[in-house]
Task: structure prediction
Amino acid sequence: MSLAGPAGVEIADQRLAALVEEAAEPALLATGFGFVEGPVWNPREECLYFSDMKADTRRRWSARDGDSVARHPSNKGNGMTYDGDMSLLICEHSTSRVIRERDGTAEVVASHFQGRELNSPNDIVVSWSGGIYFTDPVFGRIREDIGVLRNQELDFQGLFRVTPGGDLELLDDDYDQPNGLCFSPREDVLYVNDCRRNRILRYEVNPDGSVGARSVLVDGITGFDGMKCDQAGNIYITGPVGTGILVFDESGRHLGTLGVPEKPANLNWGGPGWSDLYICARTSLYRYSLRIAGARCSYMAAVGPAVPT
Result:
């Protein structure tokens, strides 16, 4: 099966035209990698960090310096984000941990649930209140190229939260393989990708950070992986082979597609106005420049606006 797809914008609903120029195409920023994932923009350094999982390497890209190695080995790190203090949070496949790095030191945020090792934390977000939400599929235990082959200790694949106080909570274990996740702009909704069941789930988020009612936002599309929201609440999801980034509104209506030459795995907002969409797609890093910025999260305030209202 080819991993190639068309580059350019396909509009299914004219609302997409307000988000991106119809003539826009993805810019190729760097290529030649094994399998790239987990992009996160550092607003202080004006650079993007991302994971090359097959190379067991964390990489850094900036317009000034280009691409370079930031850390090797990286414990086959996958999803990354910053918290409100600009500490880097990383999901590690090889160690089954979520760690926090700051000023050259690392601490374990989560590694075991009820005495059993986590599967292989995959993707991660942090709320404005400091809660850390991550998915825990089994991919890093069953694929040697992006993990370490070993038996699973948990008997489920789940969605977890680390509370601001540091307690690890299981939010939901009704998944085949949970994968990408993101908050709505007001953080009153959490979206989670159950990729093997081909659906995007929608959770109401309670004031205390726990999740309430669950429903299906999008169903029946294969190949979902990473996803992010823009500041208007539209959801950008990495799609199947031959497509790119699928854009949906908050009701699940498909607005159109941002074509990418390779099958994308993850994406994130960056750039000076948070309106550049950086896309990790198999062997390459791409960028779309949009007319709308990403939904604000806590680390964006390091050099930007305050908490959304």
In short: The mean pLDDT is 95. The domain at 8-302 is CATH 2.120.10.30 (Neuraminidase). Helices lie at 139-142. The radius of gyration is 18 Å.
